[in-house]
Amino acid sequence: MKRLIFCLLSLISLASPAAEPSDVLIGLKIDQITGINQKAENFSVVGSLRIDWHQPMLAFEPVPGEARYRTYTLATFLKLLEQKQIQWPVITYHNQQGRTDFQNRLISLAADGTVMYLERFTATFQAPAFDFRLFPFDNQLFFIYVDSIFPQSLFRFKEMPGFSGLGQQLGEEEWIVTDVHTRLATHNEFTKGEASRFVLEFHAKRHLNYYLIRILIPALLIITVAWFTFFLQDYTKRIDLAGGNLLLFIAFNFTISSDLPRLGYITLMDAFLVGTFFITALVVLGNVWLRRLENHGRKALAKRLDIYAITSYPLAYLLGALTLWLLFFW
């Protein structure tokens, strides 16, 4: 008899139409960017996440004098859901690193069963899309993935109008945010079927003042001063000055490398510094050769070759600049 009743119930469940998934309005706003660690390839933010959905089983009839909204902490709300055996749209941040620090996690429940969940948090997120090939003229992509734990057959994300975006005072000085947008996608990280994913993406480019004033302009001045040394007749002093310039470019290289991870490719700044190493090393070798010619009584030949060196030096840098442009921007 029990087996017959079970078979009848199974047939009824198969014949009945499948329940419609619950639509979940979701929005994410980044209020502050507390740090971008390009060496660790991550960024930290203070953000606000809001999730709204309708659950008729949570509807209530307000008693006289009671507001039409009830406010819960997350712990008390989860107890209510456990008592009524109700599922709720649990989320996780897919590209989060480390723990999340919550300032508050509050739930507002309307009399008709509409639930509004709001959390304000501080977290660090991975930035695997970093590409430093054009450093320091690079444009980077940052994103946050908010994933639903349950499949779309239970909860389906929809974007909350007017909530998502970036705050007016992000607090990040090195980067300029150029554009931000949101989109809906799917994933299958936790379920066999597809589950909803909400994505907030923004692009940012660097403030170039630091790199222009601290690195590029001083390097160009050193290159220019090094060219003026060709007009000195003392080859020994020219060797000393060229050797000092080589040490300066090595110092620039260490300054840049301390800000970036150990990459498997060459950046624009790497290519620029390697080019300066190579040309400066040739200058040192050339001056040593001219000094040896002078010591061996071939001063006239040394002066003729020196004229070619004076014109070849700026041409070498112009050719190097053209090569960099073709390699990285063409």
UniProtKB/TrEMBL annotation:
Stretches that traverse the bilayer: 211-232, 239-257, 263-286, 307-328
Record's GO cellular component terms: membrane
Listed SUPFAM superfamilies: Neurotransmitter-gated ion-channel transmembrane pore, Nicotinic receptor ligand binding domain-like
Pfam families on file: Neur_chan_LBD
Secretion signal span: 1-18
InterPro entries: Neur_chan_lig-bd, Neur_chan_lig-bd_sf, Neur_channel, Neuro-gated_channel_TM_sf, Neuro_actylchol_rec
Membrane association type: Multi-pass membrane protein
Domain Neurotransmitter-gated ion-channel ligand-binding: from-to ranges: 19-141
Gene Ontology MF, one: extracellular ligand-gated monoatomic ion channel activity
Keywords from the UniProt entry: Membrane, Signal, Transmembrane, Transmembrane helix
Compartmental location: Membrane
PANTHER family: NEUROTRANSMITTER GATED ION CHANNEL
Protein name, per record: Electron transporter RnfC
Organism: endosymbiont of Escarpia spicata
